[in-house]
Design a protein that fits this description.
alpha+beta; Rossmann fold; Dna Ligase, domain 1; D-amino Acid Aminotransferase, Chain A, domain 1; 3 domains; 9-stranded antiparallel beta sheet; 12 helices; 17 strands
């Protein structure tokens, strides 16, 4: 069977690697010849909104999915008339607009920080008065990895914030003094069967995920899982869905959702009995879902920019190295390393050693 994928980045690459043991072939659409997913599957070169390319993708695929949420919504809807598309285009539409996403959460009882749509300087000033300071100003669309965001710390920042982002429709969101950031990742089949991984505790720097640690038996697991299942049911979701959450002393607030496999879940490749990538393939093909049970204590570090020398990475105890075959650009995700260990203390030591090595290579 051939699975069509809109997008040819590292998530598509890992989807193909996760689906290959199940006998699946992958056909990617991407506008760049440098697509790293082309190393492990066939590439249809073309823009995401080109009907000729999309028709060819549909003709040659039994099902189509996507590996990033900013894919053209019209393309997903066009394809859905020709071939099954999972996750459903509605989930894509909700996740692509931060105001629509927050409104979806609020409508279905998923707690969020307070928020306001901002389309003018006057509305920005009003949002500041309503939310207080600090608050976060975000573009409603095309934001990821901290892009399209401005932390407004005082009224004196409002002019700069508007000059920086005011050309776009915006969302002003109340600042949550969170204890930690977590994500909950799960998969759902067309008939409603679901499987959810243990929580991932995440550390960001500059809006970019740097470290994720698997937290089995976390006290917030049941609450986070209930919110994820609610979103899945309301969207009639199929595939892997991720809900990013702020934990404020045992109170959860939804930050955003990702209708795809997620960076924090990369450690499931070695850390769990079935990876999120294999799980996504199983879900969209309506196959029995796998086990989300951990195999060991597990954590992951992202590699941004030039990676350390491969021998040095491989020499790290408990390491499992994934390099994506992408050219090294400062700040660009070029790989990740997952560490497995028998104890929490051993895992922490291995993560710290890996982080030190990665930091030394980026100097």
């Amino acid at each position: 069977m051939t699975i069509g994928v809109l997008g040819g980045g590292q998530l598509g690459r890992m989807l193909a690697l996760g689906g290959a043991p199940l006998g699946q072939r992958f056909l990617f659409v991407d506008p760049s010849r440098e697509s790293c997913a082309a190393h492990v599957g066939e590439l249809l070169l073309g823009p995401y909104d080109d009907e000729k390319t999309l028709t060819e993708l549909a003709r040659r695929s039994q099902v189509v999915t996507f590996e990033f949420e900013n894919v053209d919504l019209g393309a997903a809807r066009y394809l859905s008339e020709l071939v099954p598309v999972f996750p459903p285009p509605r989930a894509l539409a909700v996740s692509q607009d931060r105001f629509a996403e927050k409104s979806f959460f609020r409508e279905h009882g998923i707690p969020t920080p307070p928020y306001h749509a901002v389309n003018s300087r006057a509305e920005l000033d009003a949002a500041g008065e309503a939310l207080g300071f600090p608050f976060v100003l975000k573009t409603r669309r095309f934001g990821y990895d901290g892009k399209g965001q401005f932390v407004v710390r005082a009224a004196s920042d409002l002019p700069t914030a508007w000059d920086t982002l005011g050309a776009f429709p915006l969302l002003a969101e109340g600042f949550v003094p969170f204890t930690r950031e977590v994500s909950v990742v799960g998969a759902r089949r067309p008939g409603g069967e679901t499987a959810v991984y243990p929580l991932f505790e995440n550390t960001h720097q500059g809006g970019v995920l740097r470290r994720s640690v698997l937290r089995p038996n976390d006290p917030m697991q049941a609450a986070a899982e209930a919110l994820l299942r609610r979103a899945m049911e309301e969207l009639d979701y199929v595939g892997v869905l991720t809900l990013e959450l702020f934990d404020r002393g045992g109170e959860l607030f939804a930050n955003e959702m990702a209708p795809r496999v997620h960076n924090s879940g990369h450690l499931t490749i070695e850390g769990c009995e079935a990876s999120q990538f294999e799980m996504h393939v199983r879900a969209i093909l309506d196959l029995p879902l796998g086990s989300t049970l951990p195999r060991a204590k597990a954590g992951m570090l992202n590699i941004l920019g030039a990676p350390p020398p491969l021998p040095a990475l491989l020499a790290l105890p408990g390491s499992h190295v994934h390099l994506y075959g992408k050219s090294a650009v400062p700040g660009r995700k070029c790989g990740h390393v997952t560490f497995l260990a028998d104890t929490d203390a051993e895992l922490q030591a291995r993560l710290d050693a890996g982080a030190a090595l990665i930091a030394s290579s980026s100097v």
